[in-house]
Batch of 2 targets.
Target 1
Amino acid sequence: MKWAVISTWKMSFAGNVKAAKMLAEGGNCGDAIIEGVSMVEDDPGYSSVGYSGLPDRDGRVTLDGGYMDGDTLKVGSVGCIEGFRSPVRIARSLADKEFNNFLVGAGAEEYAEANGFEKRNNLTEGSYQRYLQEKDKIKELNSYDGHDTVVFVGRDVSGTVCTAVSTSGLFMKEHGRVGDSPIPGCGFYADSLIGGAGATGVGEDANRGTVSYRAINKLKEGKTAMQAAQETIDEIMERIENCRHMSIIVLDKDGNYGVATNCAFPFVYASDECEPTLYLATRENGKTSIRQIRPEEWSKD
Ligand code: SD4
């Protein structure tokens, strides 16, 4: 494959189309996937990323984002950042720094403001209403049904692999909680010599399994992208008691994809050989089964 891009959930479809177009025109992988992720961040119709994200227990929308360049292994992340438009863009700018490349909370906000990143109140009326409905319930934290983290992994014509991620994390999390998404090796990873990976699901479990790096290691051992994804999910389900929802996307350095899940997980894949296509992955008899679906077949994000 000359180029390829894979992204999580149906909500990433329009962003995948945009990223695919950029890659097809010879665009840089980082630029293409950042564009894809930030389209999801900007869309108030999606309630688990960026604008209109899921509030925490204090009714605040705090966001996590990460970016990794597989050529240099440079990585940048923000955690628990509030009041800014695009965590993934802030994360990418941090990847250029030799030190201080993972900032959280007030420190991340100070950096974003000092560096001219656009501010935005991400608590929309929709997010607030969702919060009001849940705030008095004692709720077990779980991945929000059908509305989750957006991860893009891409490979451009020059062979560069990058991964980018953005999320509001778990609905009704404690203020200050950070999941797997901005943590390199857990929520995302990229190495142009091997491939890239990213996770969506309950971050506490993804962190325990360092799932993205686990998948990359399997690629390095010579497994296919599909085997790497499946073995990663199998291992953490075996090793973590009551492992909750978890899905992983993998792209090898040649642009072949692998996906595995323990729930129902839509994703989008495009390459120079295949236009952006929506698939649904499910777990059947202990293995991931994947089929192409029409957008109408999946009513959630
Ligand atoms: C987190 N992994 O913060 C994210 C949330 C997610 O499906 O992906 N939910 O734990």
Note: Residues 143, 148-149, 167, 169-170, 179-181, 200-203, 206 surround N-hydroxy-L-asparagine (CB under 6 Å).
Target 2
Amino acid sequence: MRRIITLCTILLLFSIGHSKPNAKWWQSMSLYQIYPKSFKDSNGDGTGDLNGVKSQLNHLIRSHIKAFWLSPIYPSPMVDSGYDISDFLGIDETFGTMEDFEALVKAAHDASLKIILDFVPNHSSDQHEWFQKSLKSIEPYTDYYVWHKGKVLPNGTVTKPNNWVSVFGKSAWTWREERQAYYLHQFAEAQPDLNYENENVVRAMKDVLRFWLDKKVDGFRVDAIQHLCEDVRFLDEPLTGNSNPDDYGYTDKIYTKDQLHTYEIVQGWRQVLDEYQDKAMMMEVYANLTMTIKYYVYGAHFPFNFGLISDTNRDSKAADFKRVIDSWMLNMLVVDGPANWVAGNHDRSRLVTRYGLERAQAVTVLTLLLPGVAVTYNGEEIGMEDTWISWEDTKDPQGCIAGKEGYEKASRDPARTPFQWDNTISAGFSTNPNTWLPVNKNYVTLNLAAQKEVRNSYYSLYKAVSALRALPAVREGTLTTSLLGDDVLFFARFHEDSVYVTINFGNKEETVDLSPFIQPYNQSDIRLTVYYATINAHHLIGTVFKDIRALKIPASTTVIYI
Ligand code: NOJ
């Protein structure tokens, strides 16, 4: 006798937190993150640029993307790949000119795509004019950054103000002779923290927002928001028990993360956005759920939901995925804003590398079919994998600071290599055989052009499932989640139409009963069309199952029924 997995008792129905029929564009968008250095090189210098992005907007449109976010494109010494900005109001010449940027905004809007910029408020580059003037105590820049005279020991020696550690490792304080003081940098030494206790800084950064809003951008992804403000008593943070004072995990971040002042500053930015029409602000925040959700209340349109990055992995059980989904959705019952699902970005290992192919596909389906915003990091739609990078080729400061022995574990370069467009030179990314980071050697077979030709490719899955986002059930339907046994996660989206998804995370076939979810209930002969099934990436579009009380779900497979 076939074993029929009976319904797990936990069944949750979420009826709000999804988009309404007259939803704003940012409430239900498919958002695509472009890492400009690695997306498309138009001038053969081996680094991606704005004209390259413009030339590939069709790929976004064909992939049902509604908005794209550009990682930083501003002038930068590129210590942290553009997150060290030396002029908040310009375009780095590697990426093009202001005219190129304006042309890109126009092309995006002509194609009905929204364009979102990275706003990096926590720090600038140490090459920024503000820092150079602050170093020399030139007004009004003297207190633009977080300076401290240091702690005087009983023997008269001056030492670092406290035990704060930088995210990239080692002390967060660096001494400058010119100023006879330490400055704070929560990231690299070359990224001094701006001082939000200073009203001039608060004003200046609001003007940065206005500058780009006047250029018609549609919104901002706000970088590293949890680090924005610090407790100005500059006390030591409690120790965690980790014995290495150079490790970020050495201290418990009670004074350098999630400070209340940060939320007030965010509210001020929202007021600036509201001076314009229909602009959106989304926050990059790595914090606990409470401190993350709070951004919905304090001005953000939404904080990114990193649950599928931080809380699940290749070993997670179906219940772990359900927990990640339900905990976010429960919060959506009380906040005014869309849910959102992020499975990858330029700071984390590639989705396929983290989860393995079959699970990565399941996670892609989750991000695309759960309520709200779906976020895709460029390359994840074709299942790009991490690229091994030698120590000599390493660019990421987090890798460089870790040294030759530790860089492979710390570096984020493996997830940042050029997009694999086709099987020509440099994967069609550049005409130059030397690219800023090496192209993954697997590009010969793993590339967009090849995947377009194959019905069971990662991209075919991505495109087919993305197309479902136009259905009312996915756009604005309620969500039901349930466990069908230990290994099978089920969710459904209901409106006037329905979409059902079963994901078997286990390594053996399971037989499930969907009759409790499908009206009229408890009838065995309802026709369900399999829209897509991933069985080692084979798909079965068009197959019809008749008995919904005994549907077979192969091992490691996601099946979408409509
Ligand atoms: C978060 C960005 O995503 C990351 O790439 C960068 O290194 C830090 N913020 C510092 O700006």
Note: The first strand starts at residue 11 and ends at 14.
